[in-house]
């Protein structure tokens, strides 16, 4: 039997140093049962709820894979510090509880470099890239120039960390910084992926670095082992069009080894809205309608092109087609009261008592008109009881 499991070992209260050593032993054995046994003994000696040991046990249970114990011990810590919150956050992300991790992150009374890094890396690992970018922007809004500081202070910079920073800088139009970071990443020797190169191409598009962007795009497969996908073609076409290189953009489109997706056509459509060749605009719009019949974007592009060319009969055709093919989303609003949410649409009421509510609104309107001389017209249409 291991000495620290014998009754004689527990004949007197252990010191904090002994407790720390015990937890280290638990980590080496990687056993949930063993960890729970040691934890129970330390609770008997009054160590329950202390910040230091609480943090150690949260970390211990996280590493041995006991999520239930992680949650329980965290709640028992009397004076939680930023380390406590960070360990708990990492636990939630490790076990894939993304929504709970987001809630905990929002609740944190204090965030440090580790907090931001954990959340951004977690978003990347779990595939929530959009949310990761939102966290990145939030970090900037909080004055965390700390953005670069967070990155520079990370002990281990994996590709997810690099990608997050690259995408964040690129989306904020900081092209030069993005390209400098790209050079640093290449020096590190990490294998790049499609997300890395999407961020770099976006930076080239924002900064107008067409030659650099085309050089990277043309060498993606050979130099970086990444096959260009929809998002890469869309970004390159957008970059070329914004630089006025429409011929090169269409040439790139024609060399695509697969059928262009809606994303590619969308980039081309938006970038060529000032392009006066109606035949090309109509071709682009037709392709978009074929792929997404319910999208209003191709009709808007056509409408704009016909307006620019003074083709009023074309505008009439577009508006007629929109009316026939597109289902307009009805405007609505919500009111919450006593744990119930009621939805009001422009043409009807989506719950019982509709007529009564409109009657009350009419009475309130009369009161406003009488007391404040405010004239409000209220139409009662299609109220459903």
Automatic annotation (TrEMBL):
One of its GO terms (biological process) is plant organ development. This is Pentatricopeptide repeat-containing protein. It comes from Gossypium mustelinum. It comes from the Eukaryota. PROSITE patterns: PPR. It holds the Pfam family E_motif. Keywords: Repeat. One of its GO terms (molecular function) is RNA binding. InterPro entries: E_motif (IPR046848), PPR_At4g14850-like_plant (IPR046960), PPR_rpt (IPR002885), TPR-like_helical_dom_sf (IPR011990). PPR repeats lie at residues 81-111, 112-146, 158-192.
